[in-house]
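Database export, one record per block. Field names are fixed; values are copied verbatim from the stored entry.
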Amino acid sequence: MATETAMPIEFLATTRLGEKGQLTVPKEYRDALGLESGAVVAVLRLGNGLLLIPEQDRFRLLCERIAGIFAGHGVTGSELLESLPASRRRVFERHYPELVRTGKTRTSQSKKKNPA
């Protein structure tokens, strides 16, 4: 297993949410992360908290790491894409069992309209 360099964890005491829902990221953090005006930042909800991830680096690195894990297990991109419909169906069945039992799913309604 590869050894990872520990990332420093810093705590921002407070910032205010603006009238239009905007947050100000402190200048020292923007400078350290190379964020300029208009930079794309992913916002992930984790329970009652939010995680901000600058997409130009962190999101790309996360995607590369995930892709590396799949490649290490011999899973190709096309195999992953082929597994999505079945995965989507399992998630739907788990979250909406009442719709599955009654047959009132969009898929079953689409099939009824298009008998081909």
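Remark 1: The chain has two domains: 22-74, 76-116.
Remark 2: Residues 85 and 91 are 10 Å apart (CA to CA).
End of record.
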